[in-house]
Amino acid sequence: MADDYGGVVGAFPYAFRASSSWLFRSYAVVGGLLTVAVSLLFIAAVVVVIAGTTGGGGGSLTLSRSFFAVVGLFVVVPLVAPVLFVARRHRREGGSEGSYDAALAATGYLFVLSLYVGVVVSVPPAQQTTPTGTLAPLIAALYGLPQLAGLGPPLLAAAVELLCHRLLR
What we know:
Helices cover 75% and strands 0% of the residues. The chain has six helices and no strands.
């Protein structure tokens, strides 16, 4: 089929063309660009970790290399999932109502926002700056949380994304 897609990369233009939701179309563009940026960031991080641990044996050094790859997957998969879900639905069912597409786009944007919140929470105290502006109390409260709490918002947003797909399909 000429209108079909061939994998993850082809799903982005396919879903963009197939959807009638402008919110989803905007997420297909933003999510695609963020996916490329995050993927390049994690690839560069893996290269730096490998360069820093060459000459050492296996064991914990190999584990740290693998850890970067796994964390990268846990970040990239929820960024790509709304586009893949919508593309799959349009391909299999010949289309879908705009509410499904828009809801998945909203959960995608929620995940992007949760990544930002998670990064702010996990900033090491030595690198925190004094927050200013209208969001200063919120940023200060996020800085006050334990760093491990930075995992919560992205995990919760990814769960909401999956739940939204399950409920609306």
